[in-house]
Amino acid sequence: MGVGYKIIDWNSQKKKYDFVILIGIILYLIIFISLHFIFYQNITFETLLIRSTGSLALLMLHIILIIGPLSRFIPQAKILLYNRRHLGVSMFFISAIHGVFSIIQYHGGGNKNPFISLFTSNTDYFSFANFPFMVLGFISLIILFFMAVTSHDFWLNKLSPKVWKKLHQFVYIAYVLLIFHVLLGTLQNEKSILGFIILGIGAIIVCSFHIAAGLKNRKDEKLKFKRERNDQFVFVAKKNDIENNKAKLITFKGISVAVYKKDDNFYAVDNFCKHQGGPLSEGKIIDGCITCPWHGWQYQPEDGKSPPPFEEEVKTYEIKIEGEEVWAKIVK
Ligand code: FES
Prior knowledge:
The chain has helices at residues 12-39, 45-73, 78-82, 84-107, 114-120, 133-149, 153-159, 161-168, 171-189, 194-221; strands at residues 233-238, 247-252, 255-262, 265-270, 284-286, 289-291, 298-299, 316-322, 325-329. The protein is α+β, with helices and mostly antiparallel strands. It has 2 domains: 12-221; 233-329, Rieske Iron-sulfur Protein (3-layer Sandwich). Strand 5 (284-286) and strand 6 form a beta hairpin. Helix 6 packs antiparallel against helix 9. Mean pLDDT is 87; it is low at 1-5. The chain binds FE2/S2 (inorganic) cluster. FE2/S2 (inorganic) cluster binds next to loops. FE2/S2 (inorganic) cluster binds at residues 273, 275-276, 278, 292, 294-297.
């Protein structure tokens, strides 16, 4: 195992997760194709493939976007969050099948290179009703491709968690492009209103989850303490209010700190994991180390250092015990 980054094992939990993804994909395709055969008997294989993979990719992207905010409210959803990258890569492959077959079907039969044709066969870029919607899908696919190839920890380590996270925020741009891709495509090719309704419901669900999670974060950030002393120590909790091997999150003047209890001793460390910024306050102490709930990186509570041979380190803060009260000195 290298020192630069820790390889996340393909453990049984991940295998189960991947198995569920595979079964979900197969089930969706079977149901979608069966329903289309019942309601649209003249549909061609190519159209069926394009529709089924396109709708599946969009559904998967909605799930991916909801998992993050959902885990802020339902701790059990964190298991989905830890393995979300697998779902992202699977979604990219489904999108790629959709994209490749669409380009072959709609731009592969002429004299022009299909990619040139994609951008030039319809140049009505200033028309809403006739906008070349496939271009939006193509740009979105390129974004998803870069996100899929950089999803591995190797890139996380190369780029640093901060840059990597920022880069992966591009998923929201891909999402907006896809929404317009489907919206305009449906507008131009479908008479039914059902597609718009489903699309609208999906967008409302994604937005609602993000707004709710944002409000919750703001509330957490605004947590003020009952007591702050001149010596910069702030009140954390009563000793018995923190479970053994667990932590309490303290946010003070914009600094988030996880205060852990281990065998009646207390330790304060920076709340954000060095891997992908996972919330250490939501982890627990395993084998004597604070263990991040997202992918299991570990830190010694005493000095914030990862156990050898790893070299990551989170900042620690001074703790003072006064009677039954735990206080932490939270300064930059
Ligand atoms: S964020 Fe991945 S282990 Fe902490």
